## 1
Amino acid sequence: MSCSTWSDVVNMYAAYANGEVPWSDVSTCYFEYSVVHSTEGYAVPASSYNLFPSLPGLSWSVKRTPQWRTIVQENASGMEVAAGLMAYPLWTWELTYDLLKSNIPRSGQTYPDLQILVSFFNSQYGRIIPFHYEDPLDKSAFNQVFGIGDGATTTFQLMRQFGGFYEPVFAPHGTVFVYYKSGGEWVEYEGTTEFTVDIHGLVTFATAPADELQLAWSGSYYWLVRFLDDASDFENFMNNLWQNKQISFRSVKV
């Protein structure tokens, strides 16, 4: 099957959803499309945020917690009035590292794992500097609707849905593809000439999308986060072997 248009990619994804083709066919199709249309996407500018290191000592379980803020007022009759303070939650991650070597760097690394993680924590000065985190289960968008044109608005925030709930994407990276729906088919916008994307996921169109025009995007993203604490406990439990039972960070709103 040819994958020269975005509709071809969408059809391939639909075939996967119906159990007709394996996921590898979808990945191959998307890669072929990306090669042919690389000039139509927009390369998000590199940001100054550091990326949280990926280390093999990470163990189960990984905790991820959505956090809301709500004011609940109870009156004398026992009835309650609740007021939500947030349109979408903050997310907290808790990671555990059971094995961090302190003496031998892994292949391709300059420093041992312990030094990499300690150095990263100190480079952020604890809670001061936000950084990027790549969640392995929540890091990419595929044909994700993020706005509806009204003929006047030219800026839209990238969004992604998780189980049907929409949240903004504040840290896209790599190449972002943007489309609009015309006559039931998805049509690509030309990156740079027709739209740009900043490091916090704000899409700016050269011309305002027409009224009721559906907009979608595909691409990858990180999470913008910061550490929850200014201290982190590293335990030396055996010669040259260390562990960190909890390193936590929370998403940052822009």
## 2
Amino acid sequence: MGIYIKYNLQEKSIKFDSFDKIHDYDKVVYIDCCSCGLISLPKLPNSLKQLYCQHNQLSVLQELPNSLQILYCGFNQLSVLPELPNSLQYFSCQHNQISALPELPNSLEELWCGGNQLSVLPELPNSLNHLDCSNNQLSVLPELPNSLQTLCCNYNQLSVLPILHNSLNHLNCYDNQLSVLPELPHTLNYLYCFNNKLTLLPELPKGLLELGCENNQLINKIKYKYLKTFIYI
């Protein structure tokens, strides 16, 4: 264990035993303090671009610098999050106690917020290509961006899904209360929709490689020659 920092993202990280021993702290661009038993973080430097603070005992995060591009703060005790900077591209807050997310920046490409207490999601930015909101209390999803490639919304309380766009490659929607699926995009390769209330499936795209649909109420027998892996109903 230890705190690993960088002054340049292309350089190797330097290990410190504590934050107060870091020299030129205001020039740090990278901090990895995972699994250090931390209950709080110091004020973050304005130069910071990447912060990894998973697997601690954090209940609050300091104000985030405007330069931050990557934030991984999962597996803590967070119940609320600060305002997210407009520069943020990758954000993971999995397995905390968060009941609401702040406004999401327009630059965001990946969002991992599974394992929280979310009942609603904010508006999703058009830049988003990966969304994992599994293991929450969601009964509805917001409109999905055209750029989205992966959607993991399993283990929620969803009874319907929004329109799926022709960018989507991977859909996990199992363990919900779905009785119907929307039209499936032709780009879809992986579909896992088991443990729902489905009686029919929509037309399957020709590029589909894997399908998991067991433990539903399907009345149509599926014969699909393109499937690489088929988990039967």
